[in-house]
Amino acid sequence: MIKKKFISVIVFFLLFTTVVPTSFAEGNSVEETINLISENQISDEVEEVTKENLIKKVKELFPDQFSSVNEQNFIYEGYNSSGDGAKTYDLSYEEEADQFTGSYVRSNFSFYGDELILTSFYFRGDKDKENALFPPAITQDEGLGIAKEFLNQFIDLNDYEVKLSEYRSYSQRPLTEPVQYEYEFYKVKNGLRISDQQGRITVLGNGEIISYYYHNYAISLEEHTFDAVDGILSEVDIQTQLENDLNVELQYITEWNKGIDEAEITLAYMIQPELNMMKANDGTYFVKGEFVEYKPVSEYQVISDAVQIPTSSFNKENIEDYSLQIISQVLDIEQTEISIENVNERRRQEDLSYSITFKINENYGDITFNGINGDVTDLYLYSFNRPSDTTDDAELSLEVARERAIEYLQLFSPAASEGLAWKEDSYNQYDERDDYYNFEFTRLINGIPYTGDYIYVRISKEDKLLSYSVNIDTNLEFPDADPIINKEEAISVYLEEMSTDLYYFRQDNFWYGYYEENEQDDHYKLVYGIDYGPGYLDAMTGERVLRSYESDSIETPNITVDHPWASAELNYMIQSGIITKDTFEQVKTDEPLNVEEGLNILLKSLYYNDIIVGYADSLEGSQSFKNVSDSAASYEIVEAAAQRGIINTELEIFDLEEPLTRERLAYWYVRFLGLQVMAEQEDLYSTSFTDVDQISEEYTGHVAIANALGIITKDDHGTIRPKEPVTLAQLAVSIGKLVNVMNQMDKIRTFY
Predict the structure, then answer these.
(1) What are the two backbone dihedrals, phi and then psi, of residue 398, each rounded to the nearest 5 degrees?
(2) Distance in Å from the first CA to the final CA of the chain
(3) What is the pLDDT of residues 293-337, one digit of tens each?
(4) Does the CA dihedral 652-653-654-658 come out positive or negative?
């Protein structure tokens, strides 16, 4: 009886505990909450910036989160001076987990100038889930109002646009994570976005702000000049120009599937060169840090076999001797001057390599050999010079440096260098900022470049080899080079999906790795950003395909459904990437689900997808059920559910096609909550359903507990309908209840 009373207390607490934000629980409306933020405006400039000043600012800006915290948990990080002479002050906060609550908080704040203008902030911790799980207390529009009022403390909103972000941080967000609204803001001129004066702000579903970042706040305070908006090219002009200029190249590309060792080679048409930005007034393209007229793509130049450098025969039995011979050849020094410090043998399946650390005087280097054929696969030299054919004052030209790099290929990697080629438009350039040449040699397969295989060489202008790296895989299978569409058709496909974005762009001194002294740093050019759509064009099928990594930055789906009582849950799960087109061609809210569909949605509602995949990857090919192998579409979902104890792994067969019933769903829910032992003890629960005789014996306790917790409940007539199939709408609503119960149970466990 004592156990029954304790369970009743838990159920009573779970059923009658409401979840509301602090400010709303006190009776404040959304407008009053916004006004509360507005009242805490940035105060006047301080005479001296101290840790106490910064803590005071934090408490003014975030009264709900930090008004009563322990000030000893704040850490003053000091300041950094920016180019305009102003200082940026950094303050962090750390609240470690304790034995009673298990909660923690990590926060960081950056303030600009003596006025202490907040330029960035983030809040992370267990507490950010409190009162913020689905359903949210505020709408997207209300969150936008809160974001604007917060931003208005630092910027003049008349000069900015603030809107809901078009892109999610994750392609799939489980219901176990707090509801977040992400907004982007940017300064505008002539109604157009200024690309480098912008930021992001995130508001929780309970109305609290948990992150804010303004990129280049200092630049927004400066005076700038801007291109005029008249006399610019139209989108029709751009389309016409690109029809003449756009070029595509057949390439073999790598697609990574389930694991890091599973590469699939695809023949694709890729845009070369990448014409992604055009000056709006003259049509020049932004290439390697400057706007230039279009230049036709150069052809690949296959490395000639004419130059032959004698090398030592590979001596696997005495790898140290072989290393000494190669190093002495490279540096043109006596072997007696070289000291081998360390030799490591590495084996991975059929691969064998030797990694050697060596020393010459006080200078160190590292070299790695292929243990099968003796090719050098990596070499890093710290301060060694080889004898130069140039005079002391002369410096290597690009052409001579490239010839030198090819010599190293033939010296170090004769086996791997076969079929390598280079071209002007690829990664062959002089890095003016760091004063060295970079060369990347690509492997050609049947005359088609494979961008996944290359050898990379770095040489200084003083004829110093700085590094050498081989990334060649000879065990790959390449599809036949017989594309279904031709080059002109491929260009047409890319142009059909092309879109443009007109905005202001400031050419900084350092842009995408290219260094250029620019006297017009204060001027903004009017440019068209050109987007050809995500993914690539498969040359074998003629279809556009998303790259595997692009699924993490997909655009929020523009899909909504109407339902009498489940619209909120269904639409949130669609926007969160839980219900996808991959699962359903159409969102049929009231049709019964099978086991595979239901389990897929349940797991994605509870865990991030990378966690689900991680479970499957760690199993190394094992499987829980005979009929669900690692090649099955739902293998990852099924194995993750099995590892979490949600499904019964004592069965030999897991039928994915059978209907998902209410009692089966109750069984999953109770096992997920860790109440399996309770469900197996008949004296711990009671059943009062009018159709109790229809419940399968193994599910009786689970159905009773699910009903008591308010997740799957009986109707007004006392019937629980255990064999009734579950619809998508019913599943969405019940998962929401499950997550709320889980959250409350975590609080009870913490309390006790």
Answers:
(1) -60, -40
(2) 20
(3) 988 888 888 887 544 444 557 766 778 888 888 888 877 788 989
(4) negative
